[in-house]
Amino acid sequence: MYLFDGSPRFLNGVRLYSDATRYVNPVLKSPVFANSSYSSSEGPTQFTDAIQRAEFFHQADDDWHTLLKPRVGTPRTMVLIRGTYRFAINSDGTLAVVFVDANTFFSKLFPPTSTGNDTTTVIGLAETSGDIRTKDTATFLFPDTYLYLGGNPKNCCILGFHTYDLESGSAANGWQEKRYVLNYSSWISPGIFGGGFQDVTALSHELSETFNDPFVNNAVPWWLAPNGNCQNNLETGDVIEGLANAVDPITLNGFTYHPQNEALLQWFADQTPSRAIHGAYSYPNEAVLPTGSTPQLPGCPAH
Alpha-carbon dihedral of residues 79, 187, 53, 56, nearest 10 degrees? Predict the structure, then answer.
């Protein structure tokens, strides 16, 4: 955190700085990357793979898996100038939570152009240094960092999103465009949000959606979710976020994690009966969505 003149900001003699590296090991030990038992797989597997296998349960061979192989890149620092963020502190003066203006966050995260030579932004540095590649699914992990819209902290909170950064090709790759698939996800400390939204809830949500909709352009019929979200894309986590039974706690490596339940492809298709595992529309908790989506008119006008 910095002052208006760009100098580091201190509060009661403590530098306002939040470090995400302390959460890297807990994330790597979570069900997002570590194996756990799921009904959709004969052997232990990762959370996102279990979701995919549940969706294509009757088509998938026993040895069909889509697995993540984690690789930790170089830590990057996002510099925020006073007025673009709000914060709360712990009793020892260290940062507890940071709320950031979304437009500022985007401008600090994404390269301003598609030339592929940016070194001024977090993603630009990761791309030019080779920390992330077009064959990767990159996660930019932030510590208790949440975004607000329209410059108003009351319009909060975005806990994560997935997308891709499009960069121009060059003669070296035959002028093919380059797509860096990525997500921003916040590690969520307990007690900040209700409904069990904590630790890897956001990351599990975004990676599950990435598997289903990596370029955020998989269109489906308009749907109205139980949480009131009205959309027409294959965003599996958006259907369930915020519900009382949105997360599916699992204890792994001595820690209880809270990955989010996901809507399955069959829910969006209103497939009756569902061809997913056990005729389900959600997973791992198959009871969250007992029926498929009811097709809506564009914009869900009756909502």
Answer: -60
Query: pTM higher than 0.90 for the full model?
Result: yes
Torsion sign over Cα 6, 8, 9, 12: negative
What CA–CA distance (Å, rounded) separates 246 from 240?
Answer: 6
How far is 303 from 296, CA to CA, in rounded Å? Answer: 9
More confident residue, 204 or 15: 204
What type of residue sits at position 64?
W
User: pLDDT digits over 136-163, tens only?
Assistant: 999 999 999 999 999 999 999 999 999 9
**Which H/E stretch holds residue 53?**
helix 47-55
Q: Report the pLDDT averaged over residues 81-107.
A: 92
Nearest CA-CA partner of 19 in 109, 144, 139: 144
CA distances from 300 to 195, 236, 265, 270, 294 (A): 26, 18, 20, 16, 11
pLDDT of 302 > 90? The answer is: no
Cβ burial, residue 19 (10 Å; 0-12/13-18/19+): exposed
Token readout for 91 is 């009793």
d(CA 192, CA 198): 8
Enumerate the β-bridge partners of residue 97.
88
Spatial neighbors of 208 by CB under 8 A, at least 6 apart, are: 47, 48, 51, 236, 237, 260, 262
The amino acid at 273: P
CA dihedral (157, 47, 266, 293) in degrees, to 10, reads: -30
Asked if 289 contacts 214 with a C-beta cutoff of 8 angstroms, the reply is no
273 secondary structure, DSSP code: S
Q: For 124, list phi and psi in degrees, rounded to 5.
A: -55, -45
| CA 177-171-121 angle, 5° bins | 50
- The answer to whether 267 touches 289, Cβ cutoff 8 Å, is yes
